[in-house]
Amino acid sequence: MRPIENIFQAICSHLLPSACIVCGVFQRHTLCLDCLIQLESDQLSNYECCPQCGLTLEVSELTEKRCGECITNSPYFDETHCLDRYEGRLQSALHLLKYQRRLACAHGLVSAWNQLMTQSLKNLRADFLMPVPLSPEKLCSRGFNQSWELARRIDCDKDIHKNPHILRRHHHAQQQAKENRASRQIAIQDMFYINPQFQGQLESATVIVFDDVMTSGATLNEIARVLKDNGASHVTNWVLLRTLYPASRS
Ligand SMILES: [Zn+2]
Ligand SMILES: [Zn+2]
Asked: Which pLDDT score, from 0 to 100, does residue 248 have?
């Protein structure tokens, strides 16, 4: 988070009560202590998950420590770290941020990330942290990229360059929500590209891609493919909320 914004938040939290983004109770923080404790006790990262795609492992997959899908059809990305499941406590706050432009929710969501994820990720080194981009048309209609609003406030190693301009997205009118993984993968092909200004800067780079929601993984897989085609050596996904039952498994 930028220093001035940090100071402003600190002053506000002392002077003005905040509504908790989960339970709505007014107190000093954007995420109240009770909700933080509940979130921590049940967060997705407490469970045995596939380190590559973030899905919870089934009993038969525990010995391999990777899910069957990643073994048979390995994605381009190398690691995935998710804060919580999509169906959990943070979904409504994320919807308020995305669909009702409640930017205050970004503070609460990042507060959850910084308190629950930073410790386990503090030794992770990377050259870049970039959000999944929106198309220019989508960015214009929403007014902001929710993944960047979250990623730019995350506490991480100072040497990780946060940059929302490297990765770009073409406009695509088709809705993704109800498609299965195979058709989403086809629909999303060639949707992302590297900003020519940054061409060459990804050679041997390690990259973290931040997404607010990971569903089938098709979007993040296509992004990782583009990043690796442009020289990236390692791609890690940081995901706020993970859908645990993608269409490919149902
Ligand atoms: Zn609360
Ligand atoms: Zn997996």
From this structure: 46
